[in-house]
Design brief:
Layout lengths: L4 E5 L11 H11 L3 E5 L18 H22 L3 E5 L6 H10 L3 E5 L14 H6 L6
Parallel strand pairs: 1-2, 1-3, 3-4
Length: about 140
């Protein structure tokens, strides 16, 4: 099966002149003609000031993480991608990936350029490590 629709979950740049890791993936995949839906898991909803998730208070951050995971599931159910590329994935709960595995046929691909077992790098956490077996690649 040649994938046609790709869900890309990763931080994007807020500036047209900026760069974030997911920007290059988006540009290349769309350049190859794939239908790519990009979802930035650091963008907060309007009720959390509509900025980035960095710097949210404890309760705000917990609400944000619940919202992101529900939003990712909702977007995937509507978009129905063949493949989901997850860049780092530190915000996604293992339960979210389990929903994907149970209710969709999309392949889950984790792109994690850092050491996922080194929590001090600021990107990894127990959710990343506990989710590793749920990815197809």
């Amino acid at each position: 099966m040649d994938p046609k629709k790709i869900l890309l979950i990763g931080e994007r740049s807020l500036s047209p002149d900026g760069y974030a890791y997911a920007d290059s993936f988006y540009d290349i995949l769309t350049g190859f003609g794939y239908d790519v839906k990009s979802l930035d898991p650091t963008q907060t909803p309007w009720w959390l000031r509509g900025t980035r998730s960095f710097g949210l208070s404890g309760m705000e951050h917990k609400l944000f993480e619940l919202w992101v995971n529900a939003h990712v599931i909702e977007v995937a159910q509507r978009f129905k991608p063949d493949v989901c590329f997850v860049l780092k994935g530190h915000v996604l709960h293992p339960k979210t990936l389990e929903v994907f595995k149970k209710n969709t046929r999309m392949k889950l691909v984790l792109l994690y350029p850092d050491n996922p077992f080194m929590f001090s790098n600021g990107n990894s956490n127990a959710r990343v490590v506990n989710s590793l077996a749920l990815y197809d690649v």
